[in-house]
## 1
Amino acid sequence: QEHFGIQLGTILARTKMDKAPPIFTGFTAEELNACEEVKRKLKDEDFPFIRDREICLCTLVSKLRVDKSVEKYKGLMKTVKEYNLDFEKLGSQENVASLRNYYQHNYEVVPKDNDGLGVMWINGDTIEVEKESEIVNAGIVYWMAVHSDLATLRDGMTFIIDSSTAPDKKVGNERKLQKTWLTIPLRPQRFYLVGASAFRRFLTNALIRVARLFSNNKVLDRIRFATMEDVRAAIPPENMPPKLGGQKKQATEAWILDRLSLWKEPLPNINKIVL
């Protein structure tokens, strides 16, 4: 069996020189074993796209269930291919910089919720067909950044879509994009849709009903139409977006790159670690 990479001792030695330790240093033996098993299964199937970071993201969000993790990883990679994204450059500085406009307007930096878990905060908008690939690219990279800490990987996160400024316009690709987003592994403890007009509530409910016919995704059961007061009850005041009274944060682009830098080491081989 091919080894995953460097020994944990080497990782720990390098962290003394870095301001933040690589995320793998906090993985338990059980988590490392599960990631290793997922990677082994993918290799046995000659799956063409294999990366430690994405394997670990899918595995921990899927609660270490190996077969489910393999399924989720394949679904994610299918989406990457469907939208002609560059698998090797998803988290690169070049790719993130190319998506700056989306990160400035559609994605907020909200460090933690009241439970210490990550927050995905998306400012809803209509997505024109010609922009689908770019917004899926931006969404996947943002998802990876939000999940770049152990608490969020293990225990889930809060998901907020704020549609208060989104136009009431149906493009025709809503069902396609909803199917796309369901391929991304998520474990939201709360899922709030905020500021949805009557038109958007109708459209969202219709999409959810259709999605239930093709998926048993538990994420659908967590979706709740909410007020901003509901959101404020779940997020510390200082962590709210600045436009809503929170403290000023890093630019989303810089925050994403900092978070993804925590995956700077390859997955250590569990068999090389003295526990």
## 2
Amino acid sequence: NAEVHGETDLAPSYEIDMRTLLQGVIDFRRRIRPIIKEEFARLANSQSPDVLYVGCSDSRVAVNIFASTKPGDIFVMRNVGNIVPSFGESDEGGMGAALEFAIGALKIKHVLVCGHSNCGAMHRLHSGRCQHDSPHLSNWLRHSDRSLELLRSGHGLAGSESLSEPNQLSQLNVLTQLENLRSHPIVAEAVHDGRLQLHGWYFDIANADVFRYNEELKKFVLLNTDEAKKILPTFDQAAHPTHEDPLAHSERWH
């Protein structure tokens, strides 16, 4: 194996994927670590995120980029298809444990399910999930069967007509997983008590746009500055005291 001496560039014998990761660590040490070292020191012994983000494992969907988050902001649970098995179902993905830890221990106030365009899992579900070459994936995607039923029965969302069927399915799947979330007693109780809010987002990869599900309009709407201003008052501002404009554009760290 090639040996890294100091912080020089890596030897070319590494595969390009690992080379990118390792070079990224060196770049982090050079440019970013000096800026956020104190922040990590503060977080070393505890965390107190307000949001549990349930997203797809897709490498293109990076919430820290499109939501401009920093370490400690969100508790992340990612899997193939941003799926939440219903309560009582086989929980091979560990979602039940994540919910218990996030809501019970971390006292998070929001759960956000985020789907995205051109999702491989939704393409697989749309074309037929039961394929012999990947039995685990086929079995996992059963938790999204309800989404496919809605699409096939013509229950697409308003405003989604211009989307491909797999992308319509991806949006419907966000709503299916929100319903699955509500089947968990720990979620239902927290929502009933006003301690927890559930949210649905959709990330359009090609345009780098984020959409949120609007309960009143029954569709996904672009999450821009005007839309954010409309929904900010619905959050409990007392639980998030701040003296800065939450819509002001600023780079959290470089």
## 3
Amino acid sequence: LFVGTITLLLLCLATFAGGFTPVVSVWKRAFKSSLSSSSTTSESFPGEEQLGLGILVNEEERLKKSSFKIPPNELVELAKDVMRKDFGLLDESILADDFQFVAPIIGPYGKDFYFNALKSVNFTGSFSNIEDGTIFNIFVDPIEHNRVWYFVRPVATHTGTFRGAKPTGKQLVFPPQANSILFNEEGKVTRLNLGYVADRLEGNTGGLALVFGFAYGVGKPLPFPEARGQRSLKLRILNFLSGLADKRMKAKKAKEAKKAQKAKEAK
């Protein structure tokens, strides 16, 4: 732990002293190298273009080449059906035998554990208007043709006791999340990825999703740092030094702009 912290400190100090350019340059070279060796991105399709570090893919053309048994439009409908059936709670048959549930800091869990965990938490008895949350941008991954992506912006109102917290009537607004569902060729769900926050600064649940967001929102967060919206010591040090570097660069830019303005006025 000590060695790792010292290494991180040295990296941050180097970044602070010289700006982010050297670090970004190294990262760019590594990223481009990984792109060139990746079988999923190396093949070129009509209408695609390089945008900085990535390729703007032609989704339609790539999906036309899909070898997956189920067509993209049918996969989207299957994903909607999974949501209608409350991700298997209303119909367990939609989940494959090798099903896995995966979230940012928990899982993967199998089917039995997944159902036991969901049934042990009484969300509908503790919160109302959960169904008012929005689901949008449902689409098939143009690279991984058996995966359906979608975005959610959940909301809920605290109307019942939850983890010992009495009803407050508080409306919980969760951050936007990018979730996905993977299917096998029989149309069964093999993996459910939920709770992947796209912008942790949005909402009032501490940047947290799923049960962590519910618990945090009612003032009863789960008893570990990640469930309290906290960061490790290493990450806090990195954020602090990165913030100093950011301020330094802004000050330098402002100083140069002021100098240029004076030079302009002197003419």
## 4
Amino acid sequence: MATGGTAARRSLSSTMDTSQEIDSPPQWFTMFFADFEQRLEMRLEGAVTKRLDELTVELKAQFDKINTLEFEQANLKSELKTVREENKSLAQKIDDLENRSRRNNLVFYGIPEKVGLGQENCIDTLSSILRDFVGLNEDDMKTIDRCHRTPSHKTVGDNTKPRIIHVAFSSFMAKQKVRKECIDKFKTNDYNGRKIYVSDDFSRRILQLRKSKMETFKRLQRENKKPFFVYPDVIKYRLDGKVVNAE
């Protein structure tokens, strides 16, 4: 029995030793994982640091591109501003030249169109009014160089409003004489029961500028201040014997 008990104890001890050997990890495993956490942390830190360095370089490159684009945009804005100023200056010069070329011209509004066979002779129509209605002489008629209605063709069915008449005179003095005589006559007299008006011939730009100020002009008229335009679009009137600006 003793022998049997001893054998049993030896068998149990052998089994326990074997179990302990199985439960213990191998030496290589223990050595590999001894500093695994530290090595993993170092590797991750290295990878993150490398990627951050790459992103920093890329970000700097993007900032450089943005700075370059902003610089180019600023240059383009400056160039665009210069071009616009030059275009504005050129437009004003061209407009000034156009208005200078119109110095000898007058524009008549409200002169009835002659209805009948054939095309109207515009010079004859205007001359008869200037001579018979306004009271100008034949020498004044000879100062008319050109005369035409605008638009050149009357709109079909439009029989109510006569087209305006553009007149070019041989000199500025001749034009000014006709203008003064017509204004004096048209101001207080109707032609066959209708109003006729005369004005200087200006470019479209000047007409638009003056049109934008017509509310002020009409208000001054209602106040009996007798306003008038000074080239290009300045409204003035007389106050206590002095000429003052309306704006």
